[in-house]
Specification:
Chain lengths: ~110, ~120
């Protein structure tokens, strides 16, 4: 068990480009979450998967944001037509559905939009 | 809407002193309260958590207390060490579709422990 893995660690892109981030959760975890963290703030919830089903996506910031978890294992978060305001740390977390559920975070992908 | 307020935003202590960080939450249905430590360039690391059926929990130098009536919970670190220096976040759960834990985070407390 190597924890939650996120790639890339850093991404620099030009405004208007599309970017995709990948998250590999802890292997036995069936729940996966995406959060966004801006400088000086706590993580902000974006979306949630239970296995391959995306059960909550209302907090995705706009229709430029989309996430998938096609086989219930890894997940991708895509931002289309990036804007400077999208610059932030994108965090992935995973958990196992139990009465004592605990969320474990990856190290994040730091996005800079120029 | 759901909200978690965290105080103070910065905290500076001498090595060996205690540190206390306080949070309040708005959603009375919240029943899970984790604390995370975040070091520079890393993701948040879970350090301790408490559920609503417990008033206090301790793990070595770290303790958390919960007052559900007042919607307050606090993190206590005793005998602080320089390696405790980091940003600490409190969070409160808010039930989401399918019963998952949607965590609402505070804005963080930057703790500096001086030797």
């Amino acid at each position: 068990d190597t924890g939650v893995s996120q790639n890339p660690r850093h991404k620099i892109t030009k405004r208007g480009q599309n970017v995709t981030f990948r998250c590999d959760p802890i292997s036995e975890h069936n729940r996966l979450y995406w959060y966004r963290q801006t400088l000086g703030q706590g993580p902000e919830f974006l979306t949630y998967f239970q296995n391959e089903a995306q059960l909550e996506k209302s907090r995705l910031l706009s229709d430029r944001f989309s996430a998938e978890r096609p086989k219930g294992s890894f997940s991708t978060l895509e931002i289309q037509r990036t804007e400077q305001g999208d610059s932030a740390m994108y965090l992935c977390a995973s958990s196992f559905e139990t009465t004592n559920e605990k969320l474990f975070f990856g190290s994040g992908t730091q996005l800079s939009v120029l | 809407g759901e909200n978690v307020e965290q105080h103070p935003s910065t905290l500076s202590v001498q090595e060996g002193d205690s540190a206390v960080i306080k949070c309040t939450y708005s959603d009375s249905a919240s029943n899970y309260f984790p604390w995370y430590k975040q070091e520079l360039g890393k993701g948040p690391q879970l350090i301790i958590d408490i559920r609503s059926n417990v008033g206090e929990k301790k793990d070595q130098r770290i303790a958390v207390t919960l007052n559900k009536t007042a919607k307050h919970f606090s993190l206590h670190i005793t005998e602080t060490q320089p390696e405790d220096s980091a940003v600490y976040f409190c969070a409160a759960s808010s039930a989401g579709t399918g019963g998952y834990n949607k965590l609402i985070f505070g804005a963080g407390t930057r703790l500096a422990v001086h030797p």
